[in-house]
Design brief:
The complex is a heterodimer of chains A (349) and B (446). Chain A is an all-alpha fold and 349 residues long. Chain A contains 13 helices and four strands. Chain A has a two-stranded antiparallel ribbon. Chain A has a two-stranded antiparallel ribbon with strand order 2-3. In chain A, helix 10 (256-269) crosses helix 11 and helix 11 packs antiparallel against helix 12. Chain A is globular. The N and C termini of chain A lie far apart (51 Å). The radius of gyration of chain B is 23 Å and the shape is globular. Classes of the chains: A mainly alpha (349), B alpha/beta (446). At the A-B interface, helix 2, strand 4, helix 11 and helix 12 of A face helix 1, helix 2, strand 2, helix 3 and helix 4 of B.
Chain lengths: 349, 446
């Protein structure tokens, strides 16, 4: 009789799949609660800009956070998307809104690819300068050539008709649905992208591109792909910014300050994360509004209006400094630390 | 966290709570007219903006305290910071468009070109008239396509025509314009390019040579442009710049020997902030303006008596009383108040909403008698708007800088609006076609 050898079998489940309650809760709020109780102010001034800026941050994050290519030309690519979508809607209206948006994104991807070609040779700060050149060039382009804005006297573009399958989307709720669905589809795409081989290659390039090249990742190709995909996202974000949020935009809506704003969104939110874009966009775009309301409510009559505004800006700046000192990897890291702590609570770690 | 840090935070929180209770924020009621104030007290244009809001608030205070409101309906206003951006402009508009505590909004001034463009279509949907005095969409002059956009008083097209009429005056007649050279040095942006079209048309009509010289943003260095001007040697230069490009232009022109008293600046290059940095070289500089500088108009005397001397002015630096920007605030506020007054004539002496405000604007008729009553004679031009004509004025005056202050050297110079109207109609028709809108028909009483 032989001794029974215990057999060790590998665990049947390698990863624990749990129901993402938090995400489901947020989706419930976004799809059910907001359309029911949302009013014009919340839709027009709070939620739509928040969603569009998150998408723009997501686009830049794919390039800067995941692939490590610093870019300050985000707003320029947004402008390309906005003007390209305008061109499609104006000159080929029979294609419809979704195709026009996709077309705008694709043209922006092409432009991004072209401006990303220098990344084959240069890195770091020098690459940042070429993206800065892209920003200034594209902003100049859309002012100088009246063809882009249909020879209007004020140089502005506005969506000819936002309609989907016969429904007019030009109401606050319609624009909210358009933005929400687009952002969700693109975020889902981005999540899958970063979890795939492409995402892993991007992260390898970011962490140590020489080692990535040594193990056989075609670094140049993936860098160019990163520029193209990032500009695709930024182009669609730009089109949404111009048509779903502003209504009427011009090249000056996509100036260098917008580029910096998106860069700050991903720095504060967390580079190299998807959820971080949403947190960062909420911080950068919604916190000043909160401060403004709070300031108005608390000090409306007593403090001089100009001083009050400056005070809000000071508070905002101080908060950014505090958060970045506390957690340089961004707010999303702060939140995930908090979540892990809560899991272990009341034990501390 | 450390105990001392905790204590300081607690102290700060307590102070905030104490201050919060001290003075209540703006409160309104349903029997008052709400006047939203989208301001910019922060940012690059703050120094000019602060004077505009002071002008507006001083006039509104005057209306409330001295005249008892508009036919007894008191005005209540609240500020909202826009930083001259579109996003904050939209947020302020959405915050205020439904009124405050029941006090309704009759007219809205976006106070900033980016916000004006972003809000132009929202206002049409929300039925709140936008007053964009001296900026905004020029094609909105055609009220059949833009029922709720009002580029009141002077658009860039009318300004170009006013300039040509002034030059004709100086040269001794329109026939003398033939063969003259008029160069336009313009800021290469949508703002600067607005006058390309009308000047081309006017050059064709009067036979002068129309030279256009762009200046790239921000315009800190203009030697190349003014060297070109020196070579071409025009008779007059129209300066269509703003911000830092204006004083740089004046200084560079003086350096290249072009006579500064033959440079006429546009309305956004017509304030003391634009010429003081240029120093002595700006003496003699001319500028077009629909709200001339000066503190000796009748309204200023009244404001001095009732508001300034009692310390109730919103101006922190009283030297700016009567500056171009302060007066622009006065004029902007006056247009809004008169529109509401006109509308009250039809709808009753009560707070009005946006549609009624639009009626008031389209039936606005400010003649000399009314201007004298208001105290604005000489400061503001006659305005007569209609359903088809949302501009209503189209005149400008010319003032000259003598190194320390502005002196008015002309009366109201009207633009040739009939000549320029086809250009505007073409653009508004293109807009209507793009959007699939049917222009409304003007019957006269809608």
């Amino acid at each position: 009789m032989s001794i029974a050898i215990p057999r060790e079998t590998a665990p049947l489940l390698l990863t624990q799949r749990s129901v993402p309650w938090g995400l489901l809760g947020l989706l419930l709020i976004a799809f059910v609660a907001v359309p029911l109780i949302g009013n014009d102010y919340w839709l027009n001034a709070i939620l739509i800009p928040f969603l569009v800026l998150s998408l723009a941050g997501l686009g830049l994050n794919l390039l800067t956070g995941y692939t490590g290519q610093t870019s300050v030309g985000a707003a320029g690519f947004m402008a390309v998307g906005a003007f390209a979508t305008y061109g499609f809607l104006l000159r080929l209206p029979e294609l419809g809104l979704p195709v026009a948006l996709l077309g705008g994104g694709l043209i922006s991807a092409l432009v991004g690819y072209l401006f990303g070609l220098p990344s084959s040779r240069i890195k770091g700060f020098y690459l940042m300068v070429t993206t800065l050149a892209a920003q200034f060039f594209l902003e100049w382009l859309f002012v100088k050539f009246p063809w882009f804005y249909n020879y209007g006297s004020s140089g502005t573009i506005s969506a000819p008709k936002l309609a989907l399958f016969g429904h007019d989307l030009n109401t606050p709720l319609g624009r909210y649905w358009l933005t929400l669905v687009t952002v969700l589809l693109l975020t889902w795409g981005a999540v899958n992208l970063v979890k795939s081989q492409i995402g892993r290659n991007w992260m390898a390039i970011r962490d140590m591109d020489t080692a990535a090249a040594v193990i056989g990742i075609p670094v140049k190709r993936y860098k160019h792909l990163a520029f193209a995909v990032s500009s695709f996202y930024l182009g669609i974000a730009g089109a949404l910014w111009a048509f779903a949020y502003l209504g009427t935009a011009s090249a000056s809506s996509f100036d260098i300050n917008r580029s910096f704003q998106i860069l700050f969104i991903i720095i504060i939110g967390g580079m190299g994360s998807i959820a971080g874009n949403f947190v960062g966009a909420a911080f950068i775009s919604l916190l000043p509004i909160l401060l403004s309301h709070a300031g108005q409510a608390l000090f409306g009559g007593s403090v001089d209006a100009g001083q009050l505004q400056n005070l809000q800006k000071i508070i905002f700046g101080v908060l950014i400094i505090l958060f970045l000192i506390k957690e340089p990897e961004g707010l999303i890291r702060l939140l995930s630390n908090l979540r892990d702590r809560l899991r272990h609570w009341p034990l501390r770690f | 966290m450390r105990a001392s840090l905790k204590r300081s935070l607690a102290g700060a929180a307590l102070t905030l709570a104490a201050l919060a209770g001290a003075v209540p924020a703006v409160q309104a009621s349903a029997d008052q007219q709400f006047f939203p104030l989208a301001t910019y007290r922060v940012g690059a244009y703050a120094s000019s903006g602060v004077q505009v809001w002071a002008g507006m608030i001083d006039y509104l205070n005057y209306i409330n305290e001295v005249e008892g409101g508009i036919n007894g309906v008191k005005l209540v206003w609240q500020e909202c910071e826009t930083e001259w951006t579109a996003e904050k402009g939209i947020e302020c508009y959405e915050r205020f468009k439904n009124g405050l505590d029941g006090a309704p909004v009759a007219v809205y001034q976006p106070n900033g070109a980016p916000a004006a463009y972003a809000l132009s279509e929202r206002a049409e949907v929300d039925k709140i008239p936008l007053i964009t005095l001296g900026y905004g969409r020029t094609e909105a002059t055609d009220g059949t396509v833009f029922p709720y956009n009002f580029p009141v008083m002077l658009t860039f097209y009318s300004e170009a025509s006013s300039l040509i009429n002034y030059i004709a005056q100086r040269e001794g007649g329109f026939d003398k314009l033939k063969g003259k050279k008029i160069a336009t040095v313009y800021h290469d942006s949508a703002y600067g390019r607005e006058t390309l079209g009308p000047l081309k048309l006017l050059a064709e009509k009067y036979g002068f040579e129309n030279i256009q010289i762009p200046v790239a943003d921000p315009g800190n260095e203009q030697s190349a442009q003014w060297r070109q001007v020196r070579q071409l040697n025009p008779d007059w230069v129209f300066l269509r710049t703003w911000g830092v490009s204006t004083p740089v232009a004046v200084k560079t022109a003086a350096r290249f020997g072009f006579p500064v008293d033959h440079i006429v600046g546009d309305i956004w290059a017509s304030s003391s902030e634009d010429v003081l940095p240029a120093g002595a070289s700006a003496k003699g500089y001319l500028a077009l303006t629909p709200y001339p500088a000066g503190a000796d108009f009748e309204i200023h005397k009244r404001l001095k008596q009732y508001i300034l001397d009692k310390g109730k002015s919103d101006l922190k630096d009283l030297k700016n009383f009567g500056s171009v920007y302060y007066n622009s605030g006065l004029v902007n506020a006056a247009v809004a108040v008169e529109a509401i007054r006109t509308a009250q004539g039809k709808f009753g002496k009560r707070p009005l909403n946006g549609e009624e405000g639009r009626w008031g604007l389209e039936h606005l008729n400010i003649d000399d008698a009314r201007l004298k009553d208001m105290g604005y004679f000489g400061l503001m031009q006659n305005l007569k708007l209609s359903c088809r004509d949302h501009e209503g004025g189209g005149s400008a005056r010319v003032q000259q800088w003598d190194g320390a202050s502005w002196t008015l050297i002309s009366d109201w110079i009207p633009a040739d609006r009939a000549l320029l109207r086809p250009l505007i109609d073409e653009k508004s028709a293109a807009f209507a076609k793009e959007k699939g809108l049917t222009p409304r028909t003007c019957t006269g009483d809608e």
